[in-house]
Automatic annotation (TrEMBL):
It is a multi-pass membrane protein. Keywords: Membrane, Transmembrane, Transmembrane helix. The chain crosses the membrane at residues 71-89, 101-122, 128-149, 170-194, 200-219, 240-262, 274-294, 306-323. It is found in: Membrane. The keyword DNA-binding does not apply. InterPro entries: K/Na/Ca-exchanger, NaCa_Exmemb, NCX_ion-bd_dom_sf. GO terms for biological process: intracellular calcium ion homeostasis. GO terms for molecular function: calcium channel activity; calcium, potassium:sodium antiporter activity. This is Sodium/calcium exchanger membrane region domain-containing protein. GO terms for cellular component: plasma membrane.
Length: 329
């Protein structure tokens, strides 16, 4: 029964999150926001909402490790999606088409993941109320990153004026209603996903470290997968890649935001030290993705480019390492 609950709740999360991303794109068109900014901020935030809600529900149920593993593991999965993109669209060299446009978002993602890893290890005692100063710094860094991305778009000459709206695009009112409805569905079903995940961790003998980093992170990252592939199919390569880097940025923002929901004290200090390894793997994969998008390697191994193949190998090797460390609860 627990597996059935997990599968059903996972399916609802994926469907609702995909709708949320679609309506988020419509809102962007109707309000006149540029697509480059939308991919890295609005769509990334929309597709990352399952991670946020799952994290909040995990904290409410006393599953701090599951909450952290969900966010940090999602960073790993998002970067692995770049290898998937290269495999699916191997004739278009998709990892090169939007490289310079997302150098900043990729660099900011590296910075914020590095900050999160540092704060988990450093145990900084400063706090305001029950919220840690380290979490507040992560939140501030994200807000500054959004501002930098917005300025970068203007400096790059990317227009934020009204774009041509395709025929049949829903109105702003319909989009707002659909966005709210999808959000409500996610808020209702995520507690079931968290409970079933915790039970699976107990039944299988795997700790919440491994379950949170792999199983839950995989499910909550599926909206990124669907949205990214759909954007690439439409030729919006910059939005596809920006969604992945932007999602990693937003995941770290959510890690800091989680401290507000963990009322016993500072959230980062109660995270198992094993998550430093998860964070470092996400940091390495994000760096590899950033480097792979900047350099122009022409070598391919089979159906994959060399950098995409390296990302896939490191991701799988990281999962194996986490499995070895996560056997004992």
């Amino acid at each position: 029964m627990v597996w059935l609950i997990f599968l059903v709740s996972s399916g609802v999360i994926v469907l609702a999150a995909v709708r949320l991303a679609e309506y988020g794109d419509v809102i962007a068109l109707r309000t006149g926001l540029g697509r480059l900014f939308v991919g890295a901020i609005l769509i990334a935030a929309a597709t990352s909402l399952p991670e946020v809600l799952t994290t909040v529900n995990a904290i409410a149920q006393g599953q701090a490790n599951l909450a952290a593993g969900n966010l940090l593991g999602s960073n790993m999965f998002n970067m692995a999606l770049l290898a998937v993109l290269d495999l699916v669209f191997r004739r278009r060299r998709i990892l090169r088409t939007a490289a310079l446009k997302h150098a900043l978002s990729g660099s900011l993602a590296v910075l914020m993941i590095g900050m999160a890893v540092l704060f988990i290890m450093a145990d900084i005692p400063w706090q305001i109320g029950w919220v840690g100063g380290d979490s507040l710094l992560i939140i501030l860094a994200y807000l500054l990153a959004v501002r930098l991305l917005q300025r970068h778009q203007h400096m790059a000459g990317v227009s934020m004026e009204e774009e041509i709206i395709p025929p049949g695009t829903p109105s702003l009112g319909v989009a707002l209603f659909g966005f709210g409805l999808a959000t409500a569905a996610l808020m209702y079903v995520t507690p079931w996903l968290v409970r079933s995940s915790a039970e699976i961790a107990e039944i299988t003998g795997l700790g919440t470290t491994f379950i949170g980093t792999t199983l839950v992170a995989l499910v909550t990252s599926l909206p990124e997968l669907v949205t990214t592939v759909s954007a690439a199919q439409l030729g919006a390569d910059d939005m596809a890649i920006g969604n992945l880097f932007g999602s990693n940025l937003f995941n770290m923002f959510a890690l800091g935001l989680a401290d507000f929901f963990y009322t016993p004290g500072r959230f980062l200090v109660v995270i198992d030290p094993a998550f430093v390894l998860v964070g470092l793997l996400g940091l390495i994969l994000t760096t590899l993705a950033l480097v792979g998008n900047l350099i122009r390697l022409e070598r391919r191994w089979g159906m994959l480019e060399a950098d995409a193949l390296l990302i896939g190998v490191v991701y799988l090797a990281g999962l194996w390492l986490l499995y070895q460390r996560g056997i004992t609860p």
